[in-house]
Amino acid sequence: MNRPWMPLYVADYLADTGHLSTAEHGAYMLLIMHYWQNGSLPEEERRIARIARMSQEEWADSRDTLADLFDEGWKHKRIEAEMARAEDVSSKRKAAAEQRHSKRNSNAPANAEQLHAQSQSQSHTEKVDATASTSPEPDKSAPVAVIGLPTVSEGDYPVFEADIAEWFAAFPAVDVMQQLAAARSWLMANPKRRKTKRGMRRFIVSWLDRRQNSGVAPIPRATAPPGKLTPKDAYNEIARERGWPTDEPEILPSSDQNAHRLRRGDLGHEGTVVDLRRGSDWRVG
């Protein structure tokens, strides 16, 4: 029987062969490999010596030492047991393969009519699946994220206008948008310290709370118009006062006081307004 591989338990082998010379190690390995592939060693010791690649003198010196590793008649119990185990595994795998093949044949259509009916049914199922998987039109009223903060392995955590409006009211001494941009840069530079999406909101609130309590004086706020503001209106009110992009056609109209404050003559250097929605810098002044 052709057995392309043979199990070798290194610890057991070394324990049994520690007394062998280098030549005897080679001879023993050749003998047990021949045994594994052929199921036994020949009866004539002259042929066994040839399998071991030993001359008559070498065989005469090492014959008894090698024979001690075998039973009477040059039998080897360990190899016999491993061969029986390999045969059992092979038989079980063969039976399982035959069972699978038999089941496939029993489930096959018996005639051309059944084949045609099966084909029609499959075609109908594919059409239904294709119709069901057609993507609906995106909801244009869905909120759009203002900025995204990178998480561990779940993409960006979206921050919406409603979130900014909430934190704007909760942390009056903090430039919320600037701190979100700073938090994003910190997370990009420290990938091993990013959070999961589930823990990101807690991370943001903690970040803003530390900035709130750092002793910085409260930043000026826009005066809210009378009545209750929606999150979107609140964000736009903040954006207009701070020079951020809004949903209005003109991002920085020339009549806006913030645009005048950002001119080079007022600041002494070129001002930069970061468009956090588009990920680019708008140069003004």
Task: Give structural notes.
A hairpin with a 4-residue loop joins strand 3 and strand 4. The longest helix is centred in the N-terminal third of the chain and has 31 residues. The chain is built from 12 helices and 4 strands; from the N terminus they run H-H-H-H-H-H-E-E-H-H-H-H-H-H-E-E. The chain has 3 domains: 71 residues, no CATH class; 100 residues, no CATH class; 41 residues, no CATH class. Helix 7 packs across helix 10. With 285 residues, it is mainly alpha-helical. The radius of gyration is 40 Å and the shape is elongated. The strands form 2 sheets. A two-stranded antiparallel sheet has the order 1-2. The chain has a two-stranded antiparallel sheet with strand order 3-4. 14% of the residues are buried. Helix content is 55%, strand content 6%.
- The total beta strand count reads 4
Strand order of the largest sheet: 1-2
Q: What summary fits the major beta sheet? A: 2 strands, antiparallel
As for the number of domains, it is 3
Q: Which residue ranges are poorly predicted, with pLDDT under 50 across at least 5 consecutive positions?
A: 222-226, 249-285
Number of H- or I-type helical stretches: 12
Q: What structural class do the secondary elements suggest?
A: mainly alpha
The portion of residues forming beta strands comes to 5-15%
Helix content: 55-70%
Mean pLDDT: 76
> What gross morphology would you assign?
elongated
